[in-house]
Specification:
This protein is of the alpha+beta class. It has helices spanning 4-15, 25-45, 91-100, 185-188, 248-261, 270-289, and strands at residues 54-60, 66-68, 73-81, 84-88, 102-106, 113-117, 124-129, 140-145, 148-149, 151-152, 162-166, 175-179, 192-197, 204-208, 211-214, 222-230. It has a domain at 102-197. 27% of the residues lie in helices and 28% in strands.
């Protein structure tokens, strides 16, 4: 099994630097790790069998529709609720689905709701029922005031016409907070509406940024199993080369290419280096936007 040091030594022959006069070992080791990162991304985008995933458990808590991706996650392969795998979709699909699952309530309907001044922040008010109890609503997808969408902020430090969802007054339940410098929404005459996504067990997920998002707001706590590809640690000289030596040659070529490209008198490698990283960038884009076709057994 070849080591990292073996590949670096081989790359030195291409660089005509077997005496280690131009390129210190630490420099070539850094170039090799850059190449491995790009190789990993390409293999992941192809769902290659060379990449082995790992599992982790998370909880999708009631009244939420998002969880944070696992630590060091590069790509998510599948998401399961108990023993059922749920379908992957694009983020756009999830957001459109949420739109059609949203029910709008008028939070300034004085026959049903009331607003109470918060003990924190400036001109912040939270929503309760007319009787002063829990309004029993999940986190809104959007909040509007007189038809204009408000910006989501943080309760206790909201700016004028911002909103948040939570419990910043030790209420024992979460509710909507709004800041309105014109005064109490019950008396100011504004119309506040909240778009509430229907609550149910999710059937779809998507990977968006550093989050896993679902189309439904959860109606209960659900145990998730997330199968994902984990970012590998940087290699050191004594480590064995990954992937059973199958990719040693392209890695060696990449090390030599990157090293040559840093020499300002040799610009011939610029174009090839651009193509190398462009291919890697395209693989990353494919990885995040491609949804695998499900196979059926009833063919």
């Amino acid at each position: 099994m070849a080591t990292v040091a073996n590949v670096i030594t081989s790359a030195r022959y291409d660089l005509r630097d077997s005496n280690i006069l131009q390129y210190p070992d630490a420099e070539l080791l850094d170039y090799l790790n850059r190449a491995i990162v790009q190789l990993d991304a390409t293999l992941i985008s192809l769902h290659s069998s060379w990449i082995s995933g790992t599992d982790t458990s998370k909880t999708l808590t009631e009244n939420t529709n998002t969880v944070t991706q696992p630590t060091n996650c590069v790509s998510i392969r599948s998401v399961w609720i108990d023993n059922d795998e749920i379908d992957e979709k694009t983020p756009d699909y999830i957001h459109v689905k949420r739109k059609y699952l949203t029910t709008w309530i008028t939070a300034t309907d004085t026959a049903t709701y009331s607003w109470t001044a918060s003990g924190s922040g400036t001109n912040e008010y939270y929503l309760r029922t007319l009787a002063g109890a829990d309004p029993d609503i999940s986190k809104p997808n959007q909040v509007t005031m007189d038809g204009v969408a408000l910006t989501e902020g943080t309760a206790g430090s909201l700016s004028d016409h911002e909103w948040d969802y939570g419990d910043n007054d030790t209420l024992g339940y979460s509710t909507i907070y709004v800041r309105d410098d014109t005064g109490d929404p019950d008396a100011s005459g504004v119309e506040i509406k909240a778009g509430i996504i229907s609550k149910a067990q999710p059937y779809y997920w998507a990977h968006e940024g550093t989050n896993i998002i679902f189309e439904h707001t959860s109606n209960d706590d659900y145990a998730l199993i997330i199968h994902f590809d984990k970012k590998n640690s940087a290699l050191v000289s004594s480590d064995s080369m990954p992937y059973n030596n199958e990719f040693n040659e392209p890695v060696r070529q990449a090390v030599a290419l990157i090293a040559k490209n840093r020499n300002e008198y040799d610009v011939a490698g610029d174009g090839a280096l651009y193509d190398f990283f462009m291919a890697a960038a395209m693989s990353k884009d494919l990885k995040r936007n491609f949804v695998k076709k499900k196979y059926k057994l009833d063919f």
